[in-house]
Give the backbone structure.
Amino acid sequence: MRQNQRVVVVVVLAAAAVAGCAEGVNGDVTATQNGASTINGSVHVPTGLHSGSVGTVNGSIDIDDNATVSSAKTVNGGITMGAHAAADSIATVNGGVTLADGAHVSSAITTVNGGMDLKNGADVGGRVSNVNGRIVLNGAHVAGGLQTVGGDIDITGTSKVEGGILVEKTSGWFNFMNRKPRIVIGPGAAVQGDLRFEREVQLYISDKASVGPISGATPIRYAGDNPTG
């Protein structure tokens, strides 16, 4: 899916989540077993709760430790998952996504303008994708690959990515992105599948990392914990 299509899909999904289960218009809400939604406010999923879909338009979503939701969607706001929390899917438009230690997302994590931070033991069964924003994996696992247009990527610790990396070329709304994304694959990390770069990037790969075939970029190999460039 190209970047313009992805923007439309995420907006539609987020709006649908709120329309389907309206519990509030203005104000924060707390999820129940049936889920929760609001328009102008945040959504809180308490520790250990097994909930349905949660969504908002203008607000954040906080999923506490060991809580479970079927999906979490927002338009303007970030999404945070606590330790060992679980969700089927995560989507936002303008906001970042954070997965604490051992959090699990069964399918995809998608944002447009926002970074992603996956902590130790976090696991994603699908693709992790954005347009802008730094993607950081620290001992995490992603089964469906990483995809971005203008975001930096840092894969550290014992992180494992299956499905490769795709950095898309700029087009349409995103032609203004002239900065080269910085991609770092650190010691002990592994990226399986193709690493495909449709635009110029700075690609640094540790001499102790494992990667698949590379196209569209010339890697700079480095020793030690971090690249010097």
In short: Residues 115-222 form one domain. The radius of gyration is 18 Å. The longest helix spans residues 3-20. The helical segments are 3-20.
